[in-house]
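Entry for zinc ion complex. Fields follow.
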Amino acid sequence: MLPNERRQQLLKWLKDEGPLSISDISTRLRVSEMTVYRDIKPLLEENKIVKSSGGLSLRNQPQETLKGCSYCLKESFSRNPVQIIAHDSQVEQLCCPHCGLLRFKAIEDEVSQIICRDFLNDMTISAKLAHYLLDTDLNLNCCEPQVLTFSSRKQAEQFKKGFGGTVLGFEEAIEEIELRMAGKRSCDCHSSEELID
Ligand SMILES: [Zn+2]
Ligand SMILES: [Zn+2]
């Protein structure tokens, strides 16, 4: 194979299979790693591929990172963003638990996992097991009604003592937010839709 053919082959693999390590590539192409490096140099220079700890990947590979909240389309994320992973492994980012729960409700059948962060220690937790605090005095300036997530009920209750609010479970929190969204225009998401009464 000529270098150019090897490059075409490599691009095809990266497109079809995702990232590959240099040693994988050298085995597959039956050339030395040195040759692989020489082959990929122009691709790196043209920014067609990128090199990371996971190996080489295509530059325009869809990345999980932040294109904005897939519910309210806001580009900024709160301190406690939510991720929804669908059965087909697509990952959606939501700006905050408010959007996370509403989005979950909208696509419930497709959801494989919903993950949020503990507000206090930043650990990731399954949203279904989290405790939700609504109506606290602490305003994070994301979507209203605002929701904070905690892994421990005890900590949620302690936080509530300091900042007020109501602690709810997963299903309860969804119900409550839906109820309020239906009743009031208190949410700054979907402002265009809210104009319709
Ligand atoms: Zn949002
Ligand atoms: Zn939000």
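NOTE: Residues 3-17 form the longest helix (15 residues).
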